[in-house]
């Protein structure tokens, strides 16, 4: 890392991520590290200009208040102690915290504002080239933001040495498989292997109603398909993953229990024996998007909405059928199109449709109909732990309802989910 670096030492604070993001916003690179770094680990961290000991409510572990290691106190750089050993806690407002951090980081530590995405890309390209040499890299390219940005970065660094595998399991949104092929194979010249596994996945999912069982089947089948394709390739030594910084943080630290396990590809067989490449592992989500734009990816891909791993499989409620799955896909496309026209595309955090496995009586073309409802959901959130409902104008609902009931086969009603999180969850399954 050529950029100057500030270390945030986790001593039980719940503010580590906030502080890291605020320091990066100042143009200075920062990382979160555990409190017990060794002399060797500290020595291997380059360009460290200062250390922040960030205490907090979780600083008591097994009845003992943890402290930073001697290696950190003796690192020979300025140290700022917050909410630790009598030090005052961070101010509650961002403006006050930034004033403290500016004085410490820019004046006392004399760190330079040399953290930006262009520098990051340049450095990662060099690191990837050094790591890979003339060998080959494999990437599971879902079309999501993280894997797409990794693909674009690797294409810039090693070109045809990268092989991307895109598995179409039939549960993607309308136009997404085609966009992956267009952007990466046609526009960026990637070596892309496209796998049409739609029938294979839907056959495995036939008759399965339980959401967790559906997730398990989709996840396992993806692994099997990817593994089969990987074994067909010769001389691949590296596996690239779209791991980002929140994945690592959420995997837990020595003072915070894991939110979820850090595992992007998910359970690949150990005998694949790949060495990992994770070039985005120190970026936050907004930085990943900025990186994607700088690498030339289209905004439609970079600002792709959050999408569950099982895709539309958990929005086609109950046992998945092809006709109801298409109703989800088509109604979702209409919703996204009309939200874009209404100026809601960048305003609302996530919006999608759900089609349940029941029908109701209606009237279409002057005849009785017995068809599915489509449920619309649009929520706003900061951290996905809680969510509020977007108050969509009724004139927008009118257009969406008209289009869905007339353009989507098998649908005669449109409903809007008004439930915040809690008590509901963002997804239905």
UniProtKB/TrEMBL annotation:
Enzyme class: ligase
Keywords: ATP-binding, Glutamine amidotransferase, GMP biosynthesis, Ligase, Nucleotide-binding, Purine biosynthesis
GO MF annotations, alphabetized: ATP binding; GMP synthase activity
Lineage: superkingdom: Bacteria
Residue ranges of domain GMPS ATP-PPase in the record: 115-304
Keyword Nucleotide-binding: yes
InterPro entries: Class_I_gatase-like, GATASE, GMP_synth_C, GMPS_ATP_PPase_dom, NAD/GMP_synthase, Rossmann-like_a/b/a_fold
EC number, UniProt record: 6.3.5.2
Name the record gives this protein: GMP synthase (glutamine-hydrolyzing)
Pathway: Purine metabolism; GMP biosynthesis; GMP from XMP (L-Gln route): step 1/1
Coiled-coil annotated residue ranges, if any: none
Known role: Catalyzes the synthesis of GMP from XMP.
Binding, ATP: 142-148
A GO CC annotation given for this chain: cytosol
